[in-house]
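User: Hi! I'm working on a homework problem where we have to compare a predicted structure to a textbook description. Could you give me the structure for the chain below?
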Amino acid sequence: MLPMASSQVRVKSHEGDESVARMDSVQQAAIDLLGKADLITPMALRVAATLKLVDHLEAGVTDLPGLARVTRSHERPLGKVLDHLVSLGVVERAGERYRVSALGAPLSSRCDHLGVRPMLDVEHLIGKAELAMVDLLHTVRTGAAAYEERGVTLWEDLNAAGGGAPGMDAFRRTAALFDAEAIAEQFDWSQVRDVVDVGGNSGAVAISLLQAHPHLTATVFDLPCFGPAAREAIERAQLADRCEVTSGSFFDGLPPGRDVYLLSAILADWSDEDAVRILRQCRRAAGPTGVVLLAEVHLRADHPDPVHRTAAALRIEASMGHPDRTPADLAELAARAGLRVTWEGRHTPVRSLLALRAETELR
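Assistant: Happy to help. Predicted structure tokens:
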């Protein structure tokens, strides 16, 4: 039993009513803090989402034995989860039967476009990434993404899960976001023949570049799990004759000899040491004449409510590790990789643009 877990607890004092009142106030503060730190409600909601309880209720399985059977769960603990969901107003109970409430409706798979159930499903890739927030202490102590407390990076897990894993679509960039249009508009592409989109994901940025500059050809380079979606997007854009997809890890090497190596929103996910490793691989592939084009994001939470704003800032920090490097920070990393800044674009609130070239030949 947790200490001070009930508002019925009282503290005896011989120092008078003022002291008793003060202790009651501290005791209530302790109860309030425990309420804010409660893990039972968040995990009960995640159990409901993962077991798709609302889907089963909507399908007509409305009694506890039936729900335990279809979800392959133990009846007793599942019943206690349902009791708690009733107390929260997520489901309603009439006799031995349960039904979905208005509050619980977003937990239906029919509403997955809202993102609620996938974020709470601990077997879904989005849900796994969200649950990594319990390892926020790892981020605070190391500066690395919370997910890495598990011994792997999110990207390694995504690649191991494969392109068809539930939730994989959420990690595919289907649009060029965070002022990515600045990449096509600001940099001088007129003398560039070919570009490698390093960590190009589903090819959204490469496609936008090719559409803006018809003389360009491109290679989308990323982990194998992103290859099928990238090829499909390129085919859909009717750019297969100008864009190829190559799979691999940017830590192991890149296709050599291209004019530009684009890093769009990549380094924010990595530590300084890993960012330098990535930049060195780009430098190696670019050689003495190629350009490494950094189009890095720097994300900050923006919300009028301080609770939401600070929570969002923590989520960004714990998810990305280095979400807000400045242009000066990026230039310093580039120097450590043997690259110098040769051009700097107009920075937007969420995007920095730097062109880099090798200082000397890298062995």
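For your comparison, note the following. The CA atoms of residues 18 and 66 lie 55 Å apart. The first helix runs from residue 17 to 36. Good luck with the assignment!
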